Amino acid sequence: MPSVDFYHVPGSAPCRAVRMVAKAVGVDLNLKVVNLMAGEQLKPEFLKMNPMHTVPTIDDNGFYLWESHAIIGYLVDQYAKDDSLYPKEAKKRGLVNQRLFFNIGTLYARFADYYYPVVFAGASYDPEKLKKLEEAYEFLNKFLEDNEWVAGNSITIADYSLMASVSTAEVIGFDIKKYAKVADWFERAKKAIPSYEETNHAGALEFKKLFESMTAKK
Hints:
Elements: E1 3-8, H1 13-25, E2 28-33, H2 44-49, E3 57-60, E4 63-66, H3 68-79, H4 90-121, H5 127-143, H6 157-171, H7 180-192, H8 196-215
Parallel strand pairs: 1-2
Antiparallel strand pairs: 1-3, 3-4
Helix pairs in contact: 1-3, 1-6, 1-8, 4-5, 4-6, 6-8
Keywords: Transferase
GO molecular function: glutathione transferase activity
Subunit structure: Homodimer.
């Protein structure tokens, strides 16, 4: 089994997406927790790998890569036995990519825009930002109207990435049951993703602990 050094934070949704995909394609991640609060990401050895000093970051025998969507595509292309999780056919891959970009640019971005100022800066909840987040979930619900999975009729890395985001929102109280197709997909994905509890849910609970401790200080 190939082994890749993986610099991560357990509670991070993007980091958990990488863990889930790595497990699915048979890559052993050598887990290295980065203490962001202590500034470990700013050490010279980390900056040499990733000048943007972000997690997740991988070191695959001297090949450095960061940004979770880039990493999960790389892991499938480099190590998977087939391309089912990230199809090479142009139209199928185009749809998967669109959903990945939807996650980073819309759904996860709006989640962060709504919750992170509250968690990390002590701000009040902004109802306008909540409306934008709810709109993102309406889009996701629409994507799932005619398909079992977010990019068609088979599970792909787009499901893994969105699953990490949705599970994070769900665990801190965002009501995904208002979006019936999303709620159904969420239950399907939990069963379909290998070692979901170990690679994702445990980390989501870590984020929940952080969320509750930070918001309790208000």
